[in-house]
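Risk register update: the risk that structure generation would not scale has been downgraded. Supporting records follow, first protein first.
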Amino acid sequence: MTTPSSNTNFNAQGSFGAMLQQARKAKQVSLDDAANELFILKRHLQALENEDFSDLPQVAFARGFAINYAKYLGLDPVRIASSFDAAYPNELKSRSANNTQSPLQPMGTLQRDTHNRIRFNPLLIIAVIGVIILAIFLFRMVSNASKENTEQPISSSEDISAVEQAQGAAINTDVTGVSASGSALNLGGGDVAPATLDVKLTDAAVVTITDATGSSLIAGSQNAGDYQLSGMPPFNVQIDDINNVRLMLNQQSVALNSYANGSQASFELAP
């Protein structure tokens, strides 16, 4: 350590280096922490506390370090600066004056040891988390929409009503000449003409028949007997129990069991 010049009269306890060291220890701050906060190399702070002027940069820089260090520790920077000026060796002052024409050398004051000290901006972290959550939310919305579009219900034969089954059933023409599907056989061809229906009930049954004009030919519960009906085809036929009913279209027998769903039948019939 360089001995202060003979023109200084500071003892160890009153010197600026001792005051800096005592204030730092009272504040319970390590040299590493102070160096990181002040952007001053640790060895320069140590040199200030030890008043080791030979290990400090030129006097102007060193004095600035002392003032900043004093402010950081809560000391009077003017007092520290005066103490520094009084303690700084004369021979080093003259050497600094002679070196004013030499290029400035890096003092290390802009260096900071960050490999052991990493700071994160909390607002940036929150923003990143928010973006991730938003991305996940949008991804789930798109996935759900895609699933809804690809999972549309497909009608099966079990979902088709009795009327649709009767209208769409395959044509199975029996010996009577009336198709099992109830589609027109075009027996006479040409223009549509009125047709006759003969309904024979062996027991009471609910029978409802309407023609193409919407006229009700028979409706509701009917007693056993024979019923002759006439209207414009096609006819909409609904029977609650085909076991009690016999049906003929233009004198041709209709196979009701071809339209049956259990004992009930609902279908459209045309010659």
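Supporting record for the second protein:
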Amino acid sequence: MTSLDKPTSDTDQPHRTDQQDADAKAVTEAALFEAFGGVRGMVETVLPGLLFVTIFTINKDLTASAVAALAVSLLLVVVRLLRKDTVKHAFSGVFGVAFGVLFAKMTGNAKDFYLPGMIYTLGLALAYLVTTLAGVPLIGLILGPVFKENLSWRTRNPGRKKAYAKASYAWGLILLAKCAILFPLYWWADTTQLGWVLVALKIPPFLLAVYLTWVFLAKAPPPIDVFAEMEAEEKARKAAADARAVEARNSEF
């Protein structure tokens, strides 16, 4: 068993000082900001849907509303490309809007613009819950590479795995609660009512889930930097090989 495989327990973790707790909270906050896009990512998530429902509320024109939403989502991607920023959040917005436009144009029902996003939200909620029950919480799979710990938390850091499980349950239940509001409205409400409720529910549930994730992870043991460990082991192997080579050369004399 190598150091990369050696498990640890909660009791193996040293008691952290107040400064270490503050550092852990700052690192966790930075990682969550990177993973979920921060304020800009939230704006890119909300703006296309907000523009769609605003235009449709004014003129009830499905085509104009759809074109405007798709255009602004594409514009957000172009802006990120020009600034050489990561485009994953903007691109996900483009795909979401494109599917919404496709559904709405195919059915002729403006409400169907929101249906792909609602189905995605439901699927994501189930994914959070099912993966956690299976012992591989989805939030850990998402954040593991961001913290440079990959999957080390599964076998080597039980306290961190527990935090990821709590966070994944929180995400799953919050998204399920959101779906419990939206799907009845899809059947009972008109397009503008559904649209405004959906826009209103974009940010608050997301912020609650991110906040709970931050709380759980900030109190968890620190991540194990597997990249640093692998680099250290590679250096150790290289140093041992160099030492053997020197010893071999010396033995020739």
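The chain has two domains: 18-222, 226-253. On this basis the risk owner (M.S.) recommends closing the item.
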